[in-house]
Amino acid sequence: MCAKIGFVDKVYKHKDVEEKIYKEWEKSGYFKPEINPKGKPYCIILPPPNANGALHFGHAMFTVEDILIRYHRMKGFQALWLPGADHAGIETQFVFEKKLKALGKSRLDFDRETLYKMIYEYTEDHRGGIEKQLRKLGFSLDWSREKYTLDPDIIKIIQGTFKKMYDDGLIYRAYKLVNYCTFDGTSFSDLEVINVEREGTLYYIKFPFKDGGFITIATTRPETLVGDVAVMVNPKDKRYKELVGKQVIIPIVNRVIPIITDEYVDMKFGTGAVKLTPSHDFNDFEIAKKHNLKFPAIIGEDGKIKNTKILDGLYVKQAREKVVEVLKDKNLLEKEERHKMILRTCYKCKNVLESLPLEQWFVKVESLKEKAISVVKKGDIKITPSNFENIYFQWLGSLRDWNISRQIVWGIRIPAWKCLHCHPDRAKRVEGSLSTAAVVGDSSTPLGFAQNDKNEWIVTHGEKPKKCLQCGLTNLEQDSDTFDTWFSSAQWPFATLRASPYKGDFEMFYPTTIMETGYDLLKAWVSRMVMMGLYATDKVPFKTVLFHGLVNDPYGKKMSKSKGNVVNPLELVDQYGADAVRFALIYGNATGNDQALSYPKLDSARKFTNKLWNMARFIEMQKSKIKNQKYNSKVKNNNLAIEQLNNLTQHENDKEMIKKTEMLVKEVSKDLNNYNFNFAAEKLYDFAWHEFADKYIEDVKNRTDKNSFIILNSLFIILLKLLHPFMPFITEEIYQRFKFGESIMVSNWPE
User: What CATH number does domain 31-162+485-548 carry, 3.40.50.620, 2.60.120.200, 3.40.50.20, 3.40.50.360?
Assistant: First the structure.
């Protein structure tokens, strides 16, 4: 890097410095691990931002990763921080569909190829903007290794993993009950479901006996009674002991169903008698399987009632209103009462999800999650802060088989083909008419049972099969579904390194050192990376998981576009400077804790940058006063270590300051090693402002001896090095103006 001259400006001007310095860093190759060819590997894979819009302020917390990378780079490690972006599947398609809606169009107006191309172009525009934002924040990412989840080499790895898991029997296709959003037109895993409490209605409905009389059941969903297969009571409920085994008639459709018992029933809920609708309730589904009952499906993927005649074509809400009206007319609605209920809603559109029986691709998670739990318990992976370990164990312990197929265009298409000659009927009836069952898909496989018929599906590494393995014909159709985006991002650590343009990166840097991310991604991403990494590589994907907290708005509320409280980090960078933004995020906030965006902290951090600048100006001016050119040259090119300074001391204050600096180096290093970034930042701030500026500089400026300024100068450079991971731009600018070496970021960490 070219050396700067003097300190002409009385105030630090970040806008004149930051972009220029970043370009010099990148041009010089300082972000590459090869800068320390003999060092030990240290690797962080950047959690890939979604390629569908600008960064939000939470992404500024990547500062934590940059601190670690810069620190270890200065310690002599081969420090690799690998950037990338995620296509983000449904997230991106949802955002793009909102754009289309504003234009008066819909995704349904375009064929698959056209829609995919449009979304791809949209994401390409935003990826460039994201890179710009990451650069503006000073993040020392190795851009020569940048990857994207839709890079051809990444796609090949993702599809290859799917093929291997299919061959190993860990992936199967089956008719099962899934979370389905009728608005977005796709299924979701349990992770993408948001449970919300809403005020609803509990309906008390009379189910008549064949021989007279009735039993009253309580339900929040009267519209699904045409899909009921039983009335259910608790076996311990004495009220209904004599009724068990009898048959009742479903109102409206006059279909006969039995009264059965199951301990699942809460005797205190409603009347203690409930209806069983297995195709549209997960609990009912499991109970029906246990009792070997049928699975009539009456809600379609469009959110309309089907297979009922009386309600066909009505949306769920409309059907509810009609059923209630009919029940009242027939005097079968005993009463209604207000009732708080927990609804499963879509995490994107917030609409209520339906439980629908669909044919989907699933991952068997039992063996995968056992290994993922084991490596954390054994200490092969350390989770920090440690309190997140229990959440990790609880989540994996309750994890069901993972639905990885999505009915969307945007994403990596599942590499599975079906022969249309051998399997021409794409909508078979499973068990007959609604009176006995329902239409549930295009296979004769019973609902809820795994189907892994190698004769039906041809799974490849991505290439289209040349012919059907059974009939030899070429009339093959690829599954229209795409992978759940978490299936691809779960492979991110090993996929990025295996697809690296630098040969040997996987062998050098895998397992990665740290996965640093927000704690909100523990379930969706971290746990799945552990499962998939262990399966695909027989190694843990990272040795440590480090969680940072969320950044909320100034009032402590979560930032969201719908609330209109999202803060663009670049706006703050323009106003306060990248160093101030970074320092404000770290200062006073413990690792893993949420924080509110604080403008007073930002202002304080900006003042701190100016303080450092003024300290540098003073030291430079003091050096210029010394007439002895030999000494002057020595000072300007001097960067003495602490042990060398002890030989120059002439004043007790110097000795004291050297000891304090030595202690600071030890404490900051310890804090960084233990991920106590806030402790390190607070110590550096207090030392620089109160000990160094207010006390030591004031003492030294009244002296005339040469050694004092050597010590002052050298101690200040040590302070700059300690501050560099937190405040890279101003420390580099001062370092260059002092003319010490090529760059502070590749200088040695103080010892």
Answer: 3.40.50.620
